[in-house]
Amino acid sequence: MSTAEEVPTGAPARSRRGRERTASMADVARLAGVSSQTVSRVSNGYAGVTEETRRQVLAAMKELGYRPNSAARALKRGEFRTIGVITFSLSTTGNVRTLEAIATSAASEGYAVTLLPVAVPTQDEVQGAFSRLEELAVDAVIVIMEVHLLDAATVTLPPHVQVVVVDSDAGDHYTVVDTDQAGGTRAAVRHLLDLGHDTVWHLAGPEDSFAAQRRADAWRRTLAEAGRTPPPLVRGDWSAESGHRAGLELAGREGCTAVFAANDQMALGLLRALHERGRRVPQDVSVIGFDDIPEAGSFLPPLTTVHQDFAEVGRLCVRAVLRKMRQDGPERGTTLVPTRLVTRASTAPPPARGR
Length: 355
Description:
Elements: H1 25-32, H2 36-43, H3 51-64, H4 70-77, E1 82-87, H5 93-108, E2 112-117, H6 123-135, E3 140-144, E4 163-166, E5 175-179, H7 181-194, E6 201-204, H8 210-225, E7 234-235, H9 240-251, E8 258-261, H10 264-276, E9 286-291, E10 304-307, H11 310-325, E11 333-337, E12 340-342
Helix pairs in contact: 1-2, 1-3, 5-11, 7-8, 9-10
C-alpha cells in the first residue's frame, strides 16, 4: 500500500487530482510567520514593515508562487495604479524617448503604463482609443500628440478622463507639458549669428507637427529681431533621408554658410549631403541640430545641437496627471521644460569673404 505524500508545513493543500490549489494570503502569512495584514501591506507596497519582515514575506510569496490579486486590490483602493498612454507615432526620437521617460517615472511612483498606439489621428480613433483604455482599466491618460489634432474643432478628449497632453498647442484647454521649443531655437540661431554668419537657413520638420511649427516660427522671429531676412525654408520629415535630400539642395545655395536643422536625424542626413557635395563642415557650412540624441556626439563632426530633457518631460507628465487624479493641480495650462545649447565641432565662424 502506498503512503500519502508528505506536505511541508505551511504549504497549500493539494486537490484530489494532485495539483496545488492557488496559494492564498493566509498561506503566505503562515509560512512567513506573520499576520495576513502584514502580507497585505507588503504586497501593496505600504510603509510600516521592517526590511527583515518584508524579505520574509517576499520569500514566502516566491516559494508558494503567490501573486496578489491586482483586480481585487484595485476595487478596494478605487484605483488601478495604471496610466494609459496614447501616441500617434513611435517613429520619431522625441516620442520614443518621451514614452520611455513616462514609463520610468510612472514606475518610480508605483504605476504601470499601458500603451495604445493610434495610426490615424482622427476624432473616431481618439474616442476609440479612450474607450479601449477604459476597458483596460487605467486611472488617467497621457497623450503624446505631435500633430495639430487638438486645434481641430472636430476633435475633443473625453471630459470625464484625467488627461495630460505632451507636445501640443492646447494649453488653454488641457494640461500640457512641452519642451521650450522657441527658447531652444532662439539659442541655436543666436549662436550662429554670434559666430558671424549673415543669416541662418532652416531645415524644418513636417507641416503638421506642432514642434516643427514652433521651431520654424522662432527661427523667423529670431532672424527678424536681428535685422536679418529669413531665407526660404526647406522642409523635411524628421528622417535622415529627408535631411540628405534637403542637404543636396542647400549645398548648391550660394551664401548658405549656416543651417539650423529641426532635429538631429535630419542634421545627420544634411552632413552627409554636404560632404558629398564637397562642402566642409564647419569650415564652409555650420550645422546645428535639435534633440541632442545620444549619438550626436559621434557624428562627423560631432554635432552642435539643442538638448531636450526628455526625462524631465516624462517626470512632469506623470506628476501632472497624478495631481489631476488627486485634484491637487491646475486643470489647464502649459508647463515648459527648459532646453540648453550643446556646442560641439559642427559650428564655426563663416569662411572668409572673397574665397
